[in-house]
Amino acid sequence: MRVVAAMSGGVDSAVAAARMLDAGHEVVGVHLALSRSAATLRESARGCCTIEDAGDARRVADRLGIPFYVWDMAERFQRDVMDDFVAEYAAGRTPNPCLRCNESIKFAALLDKALALGFDAVATGHYAQVVERVAPDGEVVRELHRAVDADKDQSYVLGVLDADQLARAFFPLGDTTKPRIREEAAARGFSVAKKPDSYDICFIADGDTRGWLTKHLGEQPGEVVDAGSGEVVGTHQGAYGFTVGQRRGLGLDRSALDGDPRYVVGVDAPTNRVLIGTSDLLGVDLLTADHARWCGPAPTAEVRVGAQVRAHGEEVAAWARVDDTDPEVVHVRLDARLRGVAPGQSVVLYEGTRVVGSATIAATDRARVTAG
């Protein structure tokens, strides 16, 4: 099989490429140039996609003896990931750019280009597993499952893959822990064996999301309002800099409040208001989500699932059903309330370790408890 190995310049994608080669595939390494200012060297462990990373990837490819190319996808990344990120925050939502990158770049743009060039599949260094099973009709079905290493499991950010994309995707690291991957990289003589992981948002290298958004959206002064009383209790320089569940950086005059801590409980983009309240207002157990993506057939009835709303958040037992009139809308009823769930986040649904699918949270609510 002819396989494109996506090589970021890190240790995970290096070992993934090596394992695909060991498995007997014809492998070509590809580094995605996603930054328009890639000449800037990495300043911390947060950033990625720099010239330094491309060089690291090339050195691994040379050691493996495989062809290596750099594919420029900066314009697509800017439009589908970075511009989307800004637009979502401007609308009062909290997006996950890693899911958008996997959906639009790595398993749309990259896979489409690979197929157009005659390749059969794409392999990445994500920590997840593809499990093949034989359906009753004899068809071989590929399922996406959690990784063995729970601390590194990345099945959440892969929940946007559909069945066709999953059929052409390989994740060779899903059965191994991160420490063993580093040991394997060292044994293979890869210079990236001890390279720090990138984390958080790759295009915000210093980790200051609010500062980055301010550069793109400018200061937009507004009011901080108590959700219970409707009283104005403070001001802010941009509602886009806040997310549901946030406690720090609210800029409140504590002397005007009681002793209970306050949290962001809502962001009203049209009025540029940040709503705050006590912790009892944070818990929600009803989710309405759109832009549904299924890793296999969509559920045809209400199904029992596990629901996860953050990349490394807890999984909560739930019921999920597809909307009766709109197949891209999913309704999720959680068994227990979750705090800090914001519109724009993704809810990924599981059946055991299998990823059923995902959707983007559009609204949250709390089930009404009636006296019995």
From TrEMBL:
Keyword 4Fe-4S on entry: no
Domain tRNA-specific 2-thiouridylase MnmA-like C-terminal: 285-361
GO MF, any single term: tRNA-uridine 2-sulfurtransferase activity
Region (Interaction with tRNA): 152-154
Keywords tagged on the record: ATP-binding, Cytoplasm, Disulfide bond, Nucleotide-binding, RNA-binding, Transferase, tRNA processing, tRNA-binding
InterPro entries: MnmA-like, MnmA-like_C, MnmA-like_central, MnmA-like_central_sf, Rossmann-like_a/b/a_fold
GO biological process, alphabetically ordered: tRNA wobble position uridine thiolation
Span of domain tRNA-specific 2-thiouridylase MnmA-like central: 212-277
Residues at the catalytic site: 101 (nucleophile), 202 (cysteine persulfide intermediate)
Site feature Interaction with tRNA, where: 126, 345
EC number: 2.8.1.13
Main enzyme class: transferase
Top-rank taxon, per record: Bacteria
Ligand binding (ATP): 6-13, 32, 125
A GO term from the CC aspect: cytoplasm
Matching Gene3D superfamilies: Adenine nucleotide alpha hydrolases-like domains, HUPs, Translation factors
Pfam families found in the cross-reference section: tRNA_Me_trans, tRNA_Me_trans_C, tRNA_Me_trans_M
PANTHER family per record: MITOCHONDRIAL TRNA-SPECIFIC 2-THIOURIDYLASE 1, TRNA 5-METHYLAMINOMETHYL-2-THIOURIDYLATE -METHYLTRANSFERASE
Function statement: Catalyzes the 2-thiolation of uridine at the wobble position (U34) of tRNA, leading to the formation of s(2)U34.
Listed HAMAP family: tRNA_thiouridyl_MnmA
Protein family (similarity comment): Belongs to the MnmA/TRMU family.
Protein name stated in the entry: tRNA-specific 2-thiouridylase MnmA
Organism: Knoellia flava
Lineage: Bacteria, Bacillati, Actinomycetota, Actinomycetes, Micrococcales
